[in-house]
Amino acid sequence: MERVIDKVALVSGGARGIGAAVASRLHGEGARVVIGDVLDEEGKDTAERMGSGAVYVHLDVTSPRDWEAAVGAAVDTFGGLHILVNNAGIVNFGPIEDYTLEQWNSVITVNLTGTFNGIKAAIPALKQSKGGSVINISSIAGIRGYEAIPGYTASKFGVRGLTKSAALDLGRYGIRVNSVHPGVISTPMTAGMEMDMSRVALNRQGHPGEIADLVLYLASNESSFVTGAEFVIDGGDTAGAVTPPGQSRG
After folding, report:
1. I want to staple 19 with a disulfide (CB 3.0 to 4.6 A). Which of 73, 87, 103, 229 is the partner?
2. Nearest-5° angle of CA 243, CA 156, CA 54?
């Protein structure tokens, strides 16, 4: 089934993890895909594995010039742009009393300003395509607070708010803007972190392909009346806590 046939997608942070899964899923459903990342070798390998209809471009999301070049690559190579997935992101750690301004600036610049840069750069091409879909990858850290990641949490709340504002501004052009809020997903970013999933309803981490399936829906015409919305995909993490397996419920 080709749910995004004849569409062109640009995915930031597309070299690995969630971004690579999203790019591959869209490509498999008929889209031509531009993969943007700062991980050049991994990005090239990802595009090569996907084959015809996929290209890699170097994209530092903090650089408006890189964004212009990435959008230009989509238009010049494939004839337009219909789907933008703002996926690139970083995380750093420290309680607020020890958290430095440098840490704050680095994560805000990539996660929030990078998303702003992407939306701004894509608007002309999306308008030229008579509409489109922008999917911003936030986090459940954009739904509730977490200790020792103040910059990441603030950035992801910011992406959530930016999504809604952009949806209101761009709806008149037929451009939809939505946010996706993953819980703990098994990716290179989370590798090595100890994650206790015993109190989460589904009792496991998610997989990048599960996020990709949701992004595919938002990129397709199936979600044509969906904009300004937030989609939580976290195995029940934000719903509340369950009794860990093996423990008595009462």
Report:
1. 87
2. 105
Lateral strand order in the sheet of 32-37: 54-58, 32-37, 8-12, 83-86, 132-137, 175-182, 230-233
**Catalytic (active-site) positions:** 152
* Per-residue pLDDT at 250: 63
Distance CA 247, CA 235 (A): 20
Contact between 31 and 83 (Cβ < 8 Å): yes
Reported as a pLDDT band with limits 50, 70 and 90, residue 170 is very high
100-to-96, 97, 186 alpha-carbon distances in Å: 8, 8, 28
As a dihedral over the C-alpha atoms of residue 22, residue 25, residue 31, residue 32, rounded to 10 degrees, the angle is 60
Domains in the chain, CATH or no CATH each:
8-239 (3.40.50.720)
Residue-wise pLDDT tens digits, 99-141: 999 999 999 999 999 999 999 999 999 999 999 999 999 999 9
Residue of 167, 161, 111 whose CA lies nearest to 134: 167
DSSP 3-state of 157: helix
